[in-house]
Specification:
Elements (H helix, E strand, L loop, with lengths): L2 H17 L10 H18 L3 H13 L12 H13 L6 H13 L9 H10 L8 H16 L4 H14 L5 H39 L6 H5 L5 H49 L7 H22 L10 H5 L16 H12 L2 H63 L4
Helix pairs in contact: 1-3, 2-3, 2-6, 3-5, 3-6, 4-5, 5-6, 8-9, 11-12, 11-15, 12-15
């Protein structure tokens, strides 16, 4: 056994963690690697492995998580093996030894399927904490690490994922099965109890929230009015409001179309009739330019008022569950499949609050669009009106100055208007 190589491996890996320090590695850090090394020695000692096998286990234990320092978690095993090979090739020519170490590292990749005792030992050493009393603390560190890597993690969903991991996990060596399986079952039972309490708490909160909603805000209760007058009144109000918004939208489009048509004709006439004369009557260039500019701006504003805006056209099941998507507006579903839209509509139709909420949301956004349309159309009319007034005044001034110029010339030349 080369004790010097053992020290070099420990020194190299420790140096990597110190040099490439990553604060997000709350669990998969040097402390975890050291723990895996200690557990590997413990399990290997039980099976009396030889010197070469101990070197394989020792090296794979130190290197198995170094990939976290270089790449994303899902690819860390492959990177860990690469880091190990670069180091070992500088210290040995035994490619068979290096391949066995690599196989041990890759055996820790999920789903695990260790092929021999050495791989079983490293797998059990890596997940040793699942069957100990320290599991609660290590699981907290794992969740913290995931949050730092990916953002917010829902606690309940994380606990459910951990339970699933424990259910699918198994210890491979007889030593760990006998020593850790019972404690692992206890840890799993505690997690399940915690999940049940958490879910019960959430349900109680939901019920409390429903009770806190004023009766006047519960559309589903209004819908159950025995006389039917309240629900019919709501339906009539929503229908009339929506119809009025649509009529106003049609009026806005008509006004915009009138402005576009009139100004397009004006531009055609001006360009067709005055364009040739402007070469001779140069004094009309400025008034004509003002006239054309106002007409072009008016057309642009009218087009902006009527130009449609198409949204993404997709929604997710989570959007339907959270009642975020308005299925009554085509822009929210035009790219979804019929089956997806049909299922979503069925859910909305049996949920009175969701249905009425979508109608209210539809009316609101129609109002927002109308506000923008009428603002642009009003601005277009103002530009058109001011443009005509300024253009006419400019034409009058230009013609007056041009007509007055020859008279002054005559008076100046002869001293008499005759």
């Amino acid at each position: 056994m080369d004790n010097n190589l053992y020290k070099k491996i420990e020194h190299y890996v420790t140096g990597l963690y110190e040099t490439l320090q990553d604060d997000t590695l709350v669990f998969h850090n040097i402390n975890h690697s050291q723990s895996v090394v200690d557990r590997t020695k413990e399990i290997a000692g039980h099976y009396h492995v030889n010197e070469k096998e101990m070197l394989i286990l020792y090296t794979s234990a130190w290197f198995h998580d170094t990939g976290y320092l270089f790449t994303e978690p899902s690819k860390h095993e492959v990177m860990s093996a690469d880091v190990m090979k670069k180091f070992m090739l500088d210290h040995t020519n035994d490619t068979g030894l290096i391949n066995e170490i690599e196989n041990c590292i890759m055996a820790t990749k999920s789903p695990r399927n260790p092929a021999n005792l050495l791989q079983q030992i490293i797998c059990d050493a890596d997940t040793y904490n699942l069957g100990t009393k320290e599991f609660k603390e290590t699981n907290k560190r794992v969740r913290k690490e995931v949050e730092l890597k990916t953002g917010h993690v829902d606690k309940l969903e994380f606990l459910k994922g951990t339970v699933k991991l424990l259910e699918e996990h198994q210890f491979y060596t007889t030593y760990c099965k006998d020593l850790l399986s019972a404690t692992k079952e206890v840890n799993m039972k505690k997690l399940k109890n915690k999940i049940e309490k958490w879910e019960a708490k959430k349900e109680d909160q939901k019920e409390k929230d429903k009770e806190d909603i004023p009766e006047s805000n519960k559309l589903s209760d209004l819908e159950k009015d025995k006389t039917g007058l309240v629900s019919k009144g709501i339906q009539t109000m929503l229908r009339l409001t929506s119809q009025n918004h649509l009529k106003l939208s049609d009026m806005a489009d008509s006004k915009a179309n009138i402005l576009i048509s009139v100004n397009a004709i004006i531009i055609s006439v001006v360009l067709g009739v005055l364009a040739r004369k402007l070469q001779e009557e140069t004094y009309l260039k400025i008034p004509t330019l003002i006239f054309l500019t106002s007409a072009v701006i008016t057309i642009i504003l009218s087009i902006l008022a009527t130009r449609p805006k198409i949204s993404e056209g997709k929604f997710t099941p989570e959007d339907i569950t959270a009642k975020k998507t308005n299925l009554l507006f085509f822009g929210n579903f035009h790219k979804a499949s019929f089956e997806q839209y049909n299922d979503a509509m069925k859910k909305m139709m049996v949920d009175t609050d969701y249905l009425y909420g979508s109608l209210v949301k539809d009316i609101y956004y129609l109002g927002v669009i109308l506000g923008r349309k009428y603002w642009l159309i009003r601005l277009a009319y103002n530009v058109f009106m001011i443009g005509i007034i300024v253009s006419v005044i400019a034409f009058v001034i230009a013609v007056s100055i041009h007509d007055a110029a020859p008279v002054n010339t005559i008076i100046t030349g002869s001293g008499s208007p005759l």
